[in-house]
Amino acid sequence: xxxxxxxxxxxxxxxxxxxxxxxxxxxxxxxxxxxxxxxxxxxxxxxxxxxxxxxxxxxxxxxxxxxxxxxxxxxxxxxxxxxxxxxxxxxxxxxxxxxxxxxxxxxxxxxxxxxxxxxxxxxxxxxxxxxxxxxxxxxxxxxxxxxxxxxxxxxxxxxxxxxxxxxxxxxxxxxxxxxxxxxxxxxxxxxxxxxxxxxxxxxxxxxxxxxxxxxxxxxxxxxxxxxxxxxxxxxxxxxxxxxxxxxxxxxxxxxxxxxxxxxxxxxxxxxxxxxxxxxxxxxxxxxxxxxxxxxxxxxxxxxxxxxxxxxxxxxxxxxxxxxxxxxxxxxxxxxxxxxxxxxxxxxxxxxxxxxxxxxxxxxxxxxxxxxxxxxxxxxxxxxxxxxxxxxxxxxxxxxxxxxxxxxxxxxxxxxxxxxxxxxxxxxxxxxxxxxxxxxxxxxxxxxxxxxxxxxxxxxxxxxxxxxxxxxxxxxxxxxxxxxxxxxxxxxxxxxxxxxxxxxxxxxxxxxxxxxxxxxxxxxxxxxxxxxxxxxxxxxxxxxxxxxxxxxxxxxxxxxxxxxxxxxxxxxxxxxxxxxxxxxxxxxxxxxxxxxxxxxxxxxxxxxxxxxxxxxxxxxxxxxxxxxxxxxxxxxxxxxxxxxxxxxxxxxxxxxxxxxxxxxxxxxxxxxxxxxxxxxxxxxxxxxxxxxxxxxxxxxxxxxxxxx
Length: 707
Ligand SMILES: [Zn+2]
Ligand SMILES: [Zn+2]
Prior knowledge:
Blueprint (H helix, E strand, L loop, with lengths): L17 H5 L10 H7 L12 H7 L4 E7 L2 E10 L5 E7 L7 E8 L5 E9 L5 E9 L2 E5 L4 E5 L5 E2 L7 H13 L3 E4 L3 E14 L2 E11 L6 E5 L5 E6 L2 E5 L6 H22 L2 E2 L4 E10 L4 E11 L2 E6 L10 E4 L4 E4 L1 E3 L9 H7 L1 E6 L4 H13 L6 E9 L10 E2 L3 H13 L2 E6 L8 H10 L3 E4 L7 H7 L3 E3 L2 H5 L13 H9 L8 H12 L3 E3 L2 H9 L19 H8 L10 H21 L15 H12 L3 H6 L3 H6 L17 E4 L13 E6 L2 E4 H6 L10
Parallel strand pairs: 9-10, 17-20, 17-21, 22-23, 23-24, 24-25, 24-26, 26-27, 27-28, 28-29
Antiparallel strand pairs: 1-2, 1-15, 2-3, 3-4, 4-5, 5-6, 6-7, 7-8, 10-11, 11-12, 12-13, 13-14, 14-15, 16-32, 17-18, 18-19, 21-30, 30-31, 31-32
Helix pairs in contact: 8-9, 12-16, 14-16, 16-17
One zinc ion (ZN) binds next to loops.
């Protein structure tokens, strides 16, 4: 995964947020995202004023929790209740060299609200942590990685920390339960709690009833926490990382199953309420229509949909059946549904992706059973989400191997592993960074036999040029194009150096040199497609702490759940002293490479690697436009070009009679200003209508109303 600081600021209760962990462009993947998703909601014991019996039970006595990842204890949390009602919490775990180690001291008032907090130590990415909060005398003062605030407190608010331990979600849960209603938060927003269910768990001769709660208002998805009958933390997390009292980790699968069931129920509720299935035809009348094939805007167009198909495209004289649902299109632009060609899916992403206008995604790295099940659930409508194309991730072994996909260590296994992905519905294989270059030919050979595309990272030991010679169809991530000109580190690109070196050095490479030009000519000659995921690299070069605009998402930051917005404030890559200009130059070079590929005629497909799911595809297109592509050309990278690349342009990628009715209605004109794509009113997938704003709302996103 990413490198150190890139996403430290998206940490949530001491742990990385799922979206920022899983992305592959920046480095090795620490853990499957969906598991961090739940882990992100870890929390714990504040006894301050909560049921006094909790304090009595724990007072002075350390309560030890284990941090368990895939059945292995990798760390611990120790909570001590102090005589003044304060909590002393030590939390640490180790995950392949990364992992936080923090010490917190927290005091509470009678409501269970935090009156003071200090957390010191280091974060998951080994950044120094020094977080402090105090409340009192009508003021709240705090400092942390994202903020330095001194606020007038007109009402009591609960402080949500950035670098706290998993203990703190349970403390928040108790405060919410006592309040009996919404609780306002520092720095912003409010939280609510819902009791989901209680189940009985046993360890040896001990049995207890533990209760699952969901806390809403912090993140895109509800944060989950299990409390024991006395109100103390029992568990928060999931298979890949959870805290649970020492001696109880055998009950984890039971709790995970209950959480998965709840997540499925939540998803099914959205699927039961948001899709609008129109029995009759749908007519979008008098809109501007984006002709993705021609790259032009057709004024005053009307489009008729029926069932899951486009049945007619015409002008104002297009006959419309009398029973059709008529949608006035004046002032609006109708476009084909967008594609994100690089997202590591989690079921919770579905509604947000559709809200952004994404009706098709390609997943280039996930667990075979998980992704093929999700593909079917989205296809059948059991859950709400885009069409999924699977690119099966194959990696080798070693310290930096991806914890998802399929590990292929020998030539003999290669062909069978390619076929295994095919059985799971993959149409492509994605090679990963720790793969032994000696195995690459066997993978390429079998992929050809199976009719699958071949793409990937450039495995360590190879350069992009070697990969092209070996038969790659496509290269993921723009950094690998730059690494082609940094042969000195080619044997180390399975490590985070594959991100750090390009961010440090891309700006020093002469893009007009003969070497670069002949490399691009080779890409063009072999029709090598680029999935540059430039958002992640540009952000790494440009983002600075406490500068929202530099995150690239300033425009929509206020739409986000408060803790997500806050993550954008904390900066990205740590910029060493004196390197500011060099990093920006690299950011500019990434965009220049996009422009040069486009000019050379190399096909670019828009993908993001999940910088901010539900918002990052538009950001990717904004950056293509910033690089110099016309808005129409940028839009083609997310419509007709990926459809052609994936050989699905007979049914997808443009709005033509007979094609599948995947479309978006935008309140504005993204061909004048690509950022107008943020104004999606309706997303149509397979003829089913969705109110985009309502989809966003299911993820706690408050998009402003459309005029
Ligand atoms: Zn990748
Ligand atoms: Zn990726």
